[in-house]
Predict the structure.
Amino acid sequence: MPAVDLLRARFLEHFDGEPQFFRAPGRVNLIGEHTDYNDGFVMPAALEYEAQAAAAARPDRVIRIHSLNNGKTAEIDLDSAKPEPRGDWTDYAFGVAVILEAAGVRLPGADIVVSSSVPVGAGLSSSAALEVVVGYALLSLAGREVDTVELAKICQKAENEFVGMRCGIMDQFISCNGVVDHALMIDCRSLASRPVPIDQRARIVVANSMVHHALADGEYNKRRQSCEEGVRLLRPALGEIRALRDVSFEDLEENRDFLPDLTYRRCRHIVTENERVLQAADALQSADLDTFGRLMNASHISMRDDYEISCAEVDTLVDIAQTQRGVYGARMTGGGFGGSVVALVESGAVESFIANVRAAYQDATGHISEIFACAPRNGVGPLTD
């Protein structure tokens, strides 16, 4: 049964009316981790795994949402007292509505059914996909033309202010603006972006460590605080820098005595990761897959040793992936503390890569990794099939 017909049938089990249909993808980040909230550079790609929504306007100002994934229904009344976070999955959806209203967009009430194929806790932006598909649906029901850059900003603000996760804009931006068969090189300060083609000789392969993370538990926010502390301590020597984006590696090394060792290592990851992203974009644009793979491997070392956001299982999975025939490079992807590994693999070696990595990882850890090759997709929009 086509996705639209299935969603319509499930919608009518819970709500009345004829819904409209929408989709927003998850993402895999090829390189550029934790650089987005430092005004830096990132290069993600949108996945075929996506959040889907069926939504119909209501005559009042109540928003009801039902998840096909967990079978739960929740609602808020936009005309009641300011809604407060509930500490569960609904914060990602209702937070977008609250921020849109605060931005001056008067929303109608809505009945929404959501379903997502993006693995939760795998570092593939299931939360951003939910935010974006709900935001796009609400704006469409309100009769608003959707500016996808502005929608990304709204969804990021919802996660920062309503959910309490001080994330950067990468996840929401790629879910809004992904380009089929391309990665997207994003400048997180200016929000300028350019598509970078994925050479047909290679495939993106994602392996889930099956170790799930909860970023809102504080570790993610602690990393951001370390970066902000580094900027503050470097300002007397470097002037009015706004973010680590403005610090070169030479600047950092010349002034490392201003920084506690832990802060220095956190800053070193960001500064060197920004440079790796710029080099990786050039390599991918020129189809230099060997260089791109070496940069992926270096990125993982930096995340593991300087930013300390990996874990034993992920490191094991990366080590196994990097030793396989036909792999250009592999690294952890996502916010860290579990989640997934991304690898760039020769197209003809993908099948053996998946089989060998799954077997070796299970032998090493007892976990059975979910591994899949993926082709980048377009960003948010109507669901038509």
